[in-house]
DNA sequence: TCTAAGTATCTTATAAAATAAGATACTTAG
DNA sequence: CTAAGTATCTTATTTTATAAGATACTTAGA
């Protein structure tokens, strides 16, 4: 096990990361089911939480929906009080979408168990390892488009 | 940057991983669009590729669909020659789903660019780092359900 | 063995969501 | 000032997912 050669190590990593991605998609799907949203809506909420605010156009790009599809999704989320549309001061054709703070908390609540597990795991991870992983993932996040 | 304290490091990691997950969902969505499938179908294909074979029931669990939904999805994928249903020798109520090998390759082709980037990145990652990351992700993959 | 409960998949009617094509309103370059 | 470009929205249609229940098989227990 500690004498794994490079090719096997590489293969092991690819397998682990694919498993991680498949698991993440499933987990987000399950959280969405509990919350009463679709995975697409969940992705939208997650992106909004990371960006703070976004235009419908940005959300179309980060969900893979058409702009028409985004409008319908936003109507749905607005009606259910998850988000709010505010005028975009930079462009009068456009709007900015923001999460309604009370829903932000409520949605986060559904990730509570996994976050607790993650916190516990990180707490017992040696700092040097965590630093290595952070460095590694900083690069991983640039692989997809050359830097989105 | 090298004097980051523990809390900040922790927070940085959580941010990176959330970004990675959101990016992965988007990327899989985009590949699905190119292939002409839905994200759900893509998730099904990915799970099948990892497991080799699976029953519709297992696929229901790993996609978040109802069993009826899985049947419809499998009809769709079977009609488009992505998968095939074979009898389950262990249980006559059940079937086993397998990817048709020619489609396996074709779908993998759409991941080619990212795989190339990933290979190049891994090649220049020090072996000790890669070992740390593998160890780390082996644990990460157990956090979700306590071990799926 | 026989039966009842449980499990695995499938069927179908209905509800929900995504797309495509195009409209409206605004912005920007020339 | 005008034309081209951009951002969002509208709506009809297609596609997908759900829910409720049917069918066929398995398994545990009398």
Describe this structure in words.
The structure is a homodimer of 148-residue chains. Helices cover 67% and strands 8% of the residues of chain A. Chain A has helices spanning 6-35, 39-51, 56-63, 67-79, 101-109, 112-123, 127-140; strands at 53-54, 83-87, 95-99. In chain A, helix 1 crosses helix 2 and helix 3 crosses helix 4 (67-79). The two termini of chain A are 36 Å apart. Chains A and B meet through helix 1, helix 2, helix 6 and helix 7 of A and helix 1, helix 2, helix 6 and helix 7 of B. Chain A binds a DNA duplex (30 and 30 nucleotides) through residues 38, 40, 55-57, 65-73, 75-76, 88, 91-95.
Secondary-structure map:
Two copies of one chain form a homodimer.
Chain A (H helix, E strand, L loop, with lengths): L5 H30 L3 H13 L1 E2 L1 H8 L3 H13 L3 E5 L7 E5 L1 H9 L2 H12 L3 H14 L8
Chain A binds a DNA duplex (30 and 30 nucleotides) through α4.
Kindly summarize this structure in a few lines:
The structure is a homodimer of 148-residue chains. Chain A has helices at residues 6-35, 39-51, 56-63, 67-79, 101-109, 112-123, 127-140; strands at 53-54, 83-87, 95-99.
Structural key phrases:
mainly alpha; 7 helices; 67% helix; three-stranded antiparallel beta sheet; 3 strands; 148 residues; homodimer; DNA-binding
End-to-end gap of chain A: 36 Å
Q: Beta-strand level of the residues of chain A, as a percent range?
A: 5-15%
Rg over CA atoms of chain A = 19 Å
Tell me the total number of β-strands of chain A: 3
Structural class by secondary-structure content of chain A: mainly alpha
Shape of chain A: elongated
Percent of residues in helices of chain A comes to 55-70%
Q: Kindly report the average pLDDT value of chain A.
A: 94
Major beta sheet of chain A, specifics? Answer: 3 strands, antiparallel
Q: Say what oligomer this is.
A: homodimer
- The topology string of helices and strands of chain A comes to HHEHHEEHHH
């Amino acid at each position: 096990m500690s004498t794994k050669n490079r090719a096997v190590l590489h293969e092991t990593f690819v397998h682990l990361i694919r498993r991680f991605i498949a698991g993440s998609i499933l987990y987000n799907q399950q959280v969405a089911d509990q919350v009463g949203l679709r995975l697409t809506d969940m992705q939208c909420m997650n992106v909004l939480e990371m960006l703070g605010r976004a235009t419908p156009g940005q959300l179309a790009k980060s969900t893979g929906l058409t702009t028409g599809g985004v409008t319908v999704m936003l109507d749905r989320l607005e009606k259910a009080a998850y988000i709010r549309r505010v005028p975009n001061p930079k462009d009068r054709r456009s709007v900015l979408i923001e999460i309604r703070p009370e829903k932000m908390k409520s949605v986060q609540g559904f990730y509570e168990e996994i976050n607790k597990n993650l916190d516990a795991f990180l707490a017992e991870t040696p700092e040097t390892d965590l630093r290595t992983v952070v460095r590694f993932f900083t690069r991983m996040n640039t692989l997809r488009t050359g830097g989105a």
